[in-house]
Amino acid sequence: MSLRICILETDVLRPELVDQYQGYGRMFEQLFSRQPIAADFDVYNVVTGVYPTEDQVFDAYLVTGSKADSFGGDPWIEKLKVFLLDRYQRGDKLLGVCFGHQLLALLLGGKTERATQGWGVGTHRYVMNAKAPWMNPQVEELTLLISHQDQVTRLPENATVIASSDFCQFAAYHIGDQVLCFQGHPEFIHDYSRALLELRKESLGDKVYRNGVNSLSEEHQGSTVAEWMMRFIAHKPHTSA
């Protein structure tokens, strides 16, 4: 039986990228379709106000990345926060990537803000800080493609750090068997990261841009993170009688 996943798309891609990449929802569908656990997906662009109906049932809700600030006051962000808090209180499984990672941390008692470290771009390595049954295959360190200038600076009290680096202390976390979030982008591919770097070249500055481009020669483990996400959704915790 396939998992049913609701993808809450929180961005509209730049016009230069739409033809090739369509949107983050589509990028996640392509990534998850290569995983060993079968799943069906419904994509809703919440920036344009599109949400699932009340009678639709999903195994998990995934919040994508966005060029918007998670701590911003845009009406669509405020509406999304109300929706996600309701899903959380109902006990639904929630996943977040980049903007989604930050928004869920903020919503559940943490803090997000513009990072004093500046932009994080290209391929980034993280130290693993925790293990869980759904983190299979296991890795000694995690490598992901990133593109962010905001960070989680305080986690919710009940969160467990999964991965970190000197640049990004709270790069991944989970809250029990209900919430799983990553600052990095498992759905990105090298070509998309390269296109983003080109579009942001001036705002990044020469040093950050060049380091980002050079780092794209390294492989990333987006597929591993995608498998963790699928196993997290399918995982049924043991309960005492």
UniProtKB/TrEMBL annotation:
Cited PROSITE patterns: GATASE_TYPE_1
InterPro entries, alphabetized: ChyE-like (IPR044992), Class_I_gatase-like (IPR029062), GATASE (IPR017926)
A Pfam family hit: GATase
Domain of life: Bacteria
Protein name: Amidotransferase
Annotated source species: Pseudomonas fontis
Domain Glutamine amidotransferase: 94-191
CDD domains associated with the record: GATase1_1
